[in-house]
Amino acid sequence: MTDKATRIELFSLLAPPMRAFHLTWMAFFVCFFAWFSCAPLMPLIKSEFGLSVDQVANISIAAVAVTILVRLVIGPLCDRYGPRKMYCALMLAGAFPVLGAALSTGYESFLLCRLCIGAVGACFVISQYHTSMMFAPNVVGTANAATAGWGNTGAGAAQVLVPLLLAAIMALGAGQSSAWRLALVLPALAMPVMAIFYWRFTQDCPQGNVAELRARGIAVEGGKKGGWASFRAACANYRVWMLFITYAACFGVEVFIHNIAAIYYVDHFHLSLKAAGIAAGSFGLLALFARALGGWLSDKAAAHRGLGVRATLLCVLMVGEGLGLMCFAHEDSIALALVAMLVFGLFTHMACGATYALVPFIDRKALGGVAGIIGAGGNVGAVAAGFLMKGVGSIQQTLATLGVLVTVSALCALAVRFSSEHKAREAALRERALAAASTQGVMN
């Protein structure tokens, strides 16, 4: 704990925690850009392959379904092998299905590639694991939320930049069918390049890499050597499942919106593909500050009121998300719909940040398992929303129903409670880290 960073020094790359901080959100950005690069192209892909509404829903579900499984296992694997190795492996493997989507010839092949691309979404769990290993309790919520939020903007950037890239390719003379395929090459190539930087400039924790530390007989926080012991411990903790539901209701909705927003704006408001991409992208770009704001508020509230207030804050944010989503679903004016989307999007991103501001405090000995299960909850929510859309048959009605479900699920946040002993232990860890940082500052 004494080696963890107690401050976030944004303009410094000298210390391992800050290098991990910046490279984590950059890798996250690249992965999310690749994960959602197909979403703004869906109107063209739908037209070229003659897709039905049901098939579009299947593709939306496939884009997040496999992420559930990969997120569940990636956390314990981080406990076993360290976040550095797992992140690099994920980025290298993720490039292939993105290229495969560019080469797809019909619904079946595109669906398969979209399913495999979903594995890239597990990058989130690694990012949160890595920053949780690097930062002390007084700033870990802010660090987790900031890296996740800035990384999440990759999804919004894809909504805005991919249509512009498509237009540029077509301006050079490419046909529409070739242009959307070429537009997918950029995110596919970006992932292996990012993997090289991540391998070269990061380490697993402040003291070094997991394998080297264990070879020297040094215990590493985050989980037992096998990793699966941490997964079993996480499964037995009821708080994990409460946050599993809350994350399904905030990040699940976020992913669902990323996948259907462009089509919704084209079909419901009759916007052009470019205008729809900008409108949909504005939702994702809120993550530039909103998710970090949720984590920062959680850290500040906990500094004054203790660990328990983090869950109360999460409940309030989720109620705001649910009410805002219902307003968005019932707006028929494009201007009012955009305002409503930005309001509920603000609460959604903040709720995501507040959720993972809680994660490091659930069980420090099972960090990988806790982060993996709760992260998988987000994708369960996105898949459930996709099946809801299939059953309802209307995006607008689906959004209205989700608004009600999100509001009700806020009660799960209130159910997250900690014993007096747990609170005292975390308070002691926080004070110890701050005291060590103060002593180090005096010595320097």
From TrEMBL:
<feature type="transmembrane region" description="Helical">
    <location>
        <begin position="86"/>
        <end position="103"/>
    </location>
</feature>
<dbReference type="InterPro" id="IPR036259">
    <property type="entry name" value="MFS_trans_sf"/>
</dbReference>
<keyword id="KW-0472">Membrane</keyword>
<feature type="transmembrane region" description="Helical">
    <location>
        <begin position="109"/>
        <end position="129"/>
    </location>
</feature>
<feature type="transmembrane region" description="Helical">
    <location>
        <begin position="150"/>
        <end position="173"/>
    </location>
</feature>
<dbReference type="InterPro" id="IPR011701">
    <property type="entry name" value="MFS"/>
</dbReference>
<dbReference type="InterPro" id="IPR020846">
    <property type="entry name" value="MFS_dom"/>
</dbReference>
<feature type="domain" description="Major facilitator superfamily (MFS) profile">
    <location>
        <begin position="20"/>
        <end position="421"/>
    </location>
</feature>
<dbReference type="Pfam" id="PF07690">
    <property type="entry name" value="MFS_1"/>
</dbReference>
<dbReference type="InterPro" id="IPR044772">
    <property type="entry name" value="NO3_transporter"/>
</dbReference>
<keyword id="KW-0812">Transmembrane</keyword>
<feature type="transmembrane region" description="Helical">
    <location>
        <begin position="309"/>
        <end position="328"/>
    </location>
</feature>
<feature type="transmembrane region" description="Helical">
    <location>
        <begin position="334"/>
        <end position="359"/>
    </location>
</feature>
<feature type="transmembrane region" description="Helical">
    <location>
        <begin position="278"/>
        <end position="297"/>
    </location>
</feature>
<keyword id="KW-0534">Nitrate assimilation</keyword>
<keyword id="KW-1133">Transmembrane helix</keyword>
<feature type="transmembrane region" description="Helical">
    <location>
        <begin position="240"/>
        <end position="266"/>
    </location>
</feature>
<feature type="transmembrane region" description="Helical">
    <location>
        <begin position="56"/>
        <end position="74"/>
    </location>
</feature>
<feature type="transmembrane region" description="Helical">
    <location>
        <begin position="21"/>
        <end position="44"/>
    </location>
</feature>
<protein>
    <submittedName>
        <fullName>MFS transporter</fullName>
    </submittedName>
</protein>
<feature type="transmembrane region" description="Helical">
    <location>
        <begin position="366"/>
        <end position="389"/>
    </location>
</feature>
<comment type="similarity">
    <text>Belongs to the major facilitator superfamily. Nitrate/nitrite porter (TC 2.A.1.8) family.</text>
</comment>
<feature type="transmembrane region" description="Helical">
    <location>
        <begin position="179"/>
        <end position="199"/>
    </location>
</feature>
<feature type="transmembrane region" description="Helical">
    <location>
        <begin position="395"/>
        <end position="416"/>
    </location>
</feature>
